[in-house]
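User: Please predict the structure of the protein below. I'd like the answer in structure-token form so I can feed it into my own downstream comparison script.

Assistant: Understood. Taking the following sequence of 694 residues as input:
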Amino acid sequence: MHTQLHGRGALFDAEPAGLAPRLVGLVPGRHRAHSLEHPDEPPFVVLTGARGMGKSAALGALRDAYQGHTPVALIDCAARQFAEPPTGRPPESWSPSATALLVIAEQLAEPVTGAGRIAFPRLMAGLVAVAAGGWGDAEADRIRREVERILLLNDRGGKFGAFAGRWAGKVAAKVVAATTHTTPLVSGAIEATLESIAEGFTGHRQQKASEWYRSYPNAGGNAQRGLILLSQHFRDGGGSREHAERYLVRALLADLTEAYTGFMARMQRLGRPLVLLDNAQTTPGPELTAAVLRDRAEGIGDRVAFVAARRGDGREELPNAARRQLAEVARRTDWAPDPAPSSRALLVALPPLSADDTLHIVGALCADTAVPSHLPSATHRLTGGNPLGVVLLAQSAAQHLPGVTSLGELLTAEVRPGEDQPALPAHQALLDRLVPAEYLEELTVLAAAHDHGSARALAAALLPDTFGPADIRALQTSLAAEGLPVVPDQFVGDPFVRALLLLRLHLRDEDHASWRRAHETLIEHYAAPEQAPYRLHHELALGDAEPAVARLRDDFATADTRVWLRTLRFIASAPYFHAHDAEGRDFGGRGDRRAAVALGTTDAAYPVPRDVDAVLHLRIRRLLHAVWELTDPLVLPDPKVCDRLRFELEQLSNLRPAAGALLWRASRDWPAAVLAGRPLEGPEDSDDDGRGEA
């Protein structure tokens, strides 16, 4: 199963062993033991990264690789079942953490190769005590349903299911009787729970489990009193509930430890139990993580391998955790905890896919389709190796090639991500998963901004009056917490997400009015002379290239060459989602005039301004349009335009010999980067800065 994941071998490799087999103690996909890297206490592994980086896919692959070989549970902490109580369940007797423990235990209980079901008597008793706190006016049928589900945690197979039904009815009857008599309701339910353990099981382990709550604080050695206190603390909420939930986590882990204790258990169970928490930045993820780490730091050990996935880098929640890149844990973790609970965690950042990974994914998903030679590298450049972006663009290509001519058209074409999912434009499907839905409208507008000041200008022009400067700062903080990079001169630092948002802004209304107003607002905002590159960038986005050509032409002879090249790249990074007509106006037809200008086919009809060097002016115009097209992440690179880029930079190096080294180096580096799907970077020439060349 795991072989379908590209670029994640450090997790799943069998020989030499990746992180998963060293953590779990089993070879992925096989019932064969592997030595443990940390036999006494495993690190609590947390996979980190922004949306779309494949964290959920990695957890799914881990579940598939180990299911049936060792106990495995996978929950999505963002799932609806953890967001609110089920119908009829009072909030005081329900919490996301308690529900998660029930769901986790139900999955871990399933039989595996060589071993039967795992029973969870400690957790069962605790969850009944918690549930009983909400049975004050409940109907007998609801009580029976809740009790029977919890009781099945103690199911070891055989005829236990029938016994569970009988006992659930017994508990329901006791509770109903307690509501009309003097017997306390909670204590009646707990008494029935403890009686059921004694009645249904006579083994030493089950008896130990029934006595486990004697050690609950202030229980005085009485298990029933311990459970009553647990129920009361849970209902009290706040810190008291946190204390009770921590004890329930400990009950789950104690039951698992019991299942692995003894000679026969060690012979039958080869690998550690594996608990997988997706979206662990969302409740109940932080609570479960904190409970496990705190107990481990206090010397209360367990035998469970935890792997969580969360957005962002987790620095605030886990300040003392060890931090590694995925490649760094491919063969060993070099992890050793200190006394701080969060040091028991190991944060592992998932990297973007490589260009080779992208090539293989596009090839696999487009196996029956003729793929343009530069499509994989262009896909990698656009997505930055974001796995979700790569896969969805490859799916769009498989469904629409050869009828499309650019990545922009692949993004606007409808794609069906799965058989049971509706078709929708690819860029919309990506934004639905890469951007928080509650911020989509604001980010669509602010994606054109460069900093807080320009974001304020855009918000004033295009967003409701209720969205002010404080909201902008809060949004920036949220983006960082999501794991998106912070990049100078860009409000949205991730180039792929920004490109998708700008595309959505362009398509926001049929006549592209929002698009024009956004850039007109920024042109007005950047009115100062020293802000000219920003102003020219946004003028170019509206199709007006003449001011940029004039500025680059006039600065060419006197500006520092490195600064001039950086300014050229920045201005030419202006987005270009639709074609522009001869007057620079946006229109809805297909076509891209940039290549025609770059190749010089429009020179004859172009009126060169008076009193300027016509040769230099035309050369700068061709160069600007060449860089504008070749750096556009939504188009495939045109080799002819690349050749023209090389030629124009070579000729400029002749016009300014003192700076010729830098210009000549750019003439080599830039076309090569474009064809390889890499972003343009400044020419590197540490031995010669170009100033001393004659």
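That's the full token string. The longest helix spans residues 238-259.
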